[in-house]
Design goal:
- Helices cover 23% and strands 37% of the residues.
- It is α+β, with helices and mostly antiparallel strands and 154 residues long.
- Strands 1, 2, 3, 4, 5, 6, 7 and 8 form an eight-stranded antiparallel beta sheet that branches.
- The chain has three helices and eight strands.
Length: 154
């Protein structure tokens, strides 16, 4: 039975703990960072980071981001990934409670710590960030290099 592309994308996201976040500064210089993530409905991806991190500073000035989620242990030539186009920002006060709950629940499921809103408020060293996804895609299995098919997960 052939898996539907949407199911492939969901499986990859659920099985992965880290995503590679690609940002750029105001001059367009790229920067990529692996970050532990949680998601809500495959359209909101959350992570915790220092506002002084390069990717956080880049997001503050340029919100467009690219994200790749994949299994880095897959044998050569068999890997599949999910690619996201998104807009990222620091989570605002009105969404912080909901976002940190999503992040904390996944953290604990993976053996990590529980997170609370106070851990990511203005007076804390870390902040909660989110990416709102515009587009999901996976590699097409048609033999063409880097040919992607858009999938709908929302």
């Amino acid at each position: 039975m052939v898996e539907r592309p949407e199911d492939v994308a969901r499986t990859i996201i659920e099985a992965s703990r880290y995503m590679v976040l690609a940002t750029a500064d105001t001059n367009g210089r790229p920067w990529s960072s692996p970050v532990y993530f949680a998601h809500a409905g495959y359209t909101r991806f959350y992570w915790v980071s220092s506002p002084e991190a390069v990717h956080s500073r880049n997001i503050a000035t340029r919100s467009d981001v690219g994200i790749a989620i994949f299994d880095s242990t897959a044998p050569i030539g068999t890997g599949q990934g999910v690619y996201l186009r998104a807009r990222a920002d620091e989570v605002s006060d009105d969404e912080r409670d909901q976002g940190i709950e999503v992040f904390s629940r996944r953290s604990q499921a993976h053996g990590g710590v529980a997170w609370i809103t106070a851990d990511v408020q203005r007076c804390a060293e870390l902040r909660l960030y989110r990416a709102l996804v515009d587009e999901h895609s996976i590699l097409a299995k048609d033999g063409r290099p880097d040919h992607r098919n858009v999938v709908r997960l929302a």
